[in-house]
Amino acid sequence: MRFATLSLAIGLSVLASSAMSQNFPGAPGVALLNGKCAKLVVGKLDDSKNCTGQLASVTTAEGAVTFIFTANGKMLGFEGDGTAIKPASNGNARMPIAIVSSGVGSKMTGEVKAAGFCTFGNPYAGKPTVVECTAETKASSFTGSFRTNGKPPQSK
Known about the structure:
Blueprint: H1 2-21, E1 29-42, E2 45-46, E3 54-59, E4 64-71, E5 74-81, E6 86-87, E7 93-104, E8 107-120, E9 130-136, E10 141-148, E11 154-155
Antiparallel strand pairs: 1-2, 1-3, 1-10, 1-11, 3-4, 4-5, 5-7, 6-7, 7-8, 8-9, 9-10
């Protein structure tokens, strides 16, 4: 009986540590988060009502991370250095943004240097979390806010 209890305790410990080791944005690839887009604004154009209920997080092998919001077949990406992610308040993380990209369909076609940040929680924690991005250039400002549905991201 003591061996069975020890085996169960070790098994639960391994499961707990593997769940805790899932980090976000994570390894290279694409993660899709489902939920509700609360805000998508480019300059004076507010396209929040058309923003879709899915947010993509793309991580490259070099460590760049892009959060991609979509509305009306168009994309707006906030790109930063995933190795520069730092802890923020309330258990969130914060990543500096260096580039804002745009595209149509499935291709990013334009990019501009920008300054800003994305703040986000861990979507693997089993509860809804928010991804908020803001960036500015000399000519415009960009804002995106997305609340996940509390389910883990889908890897693509």
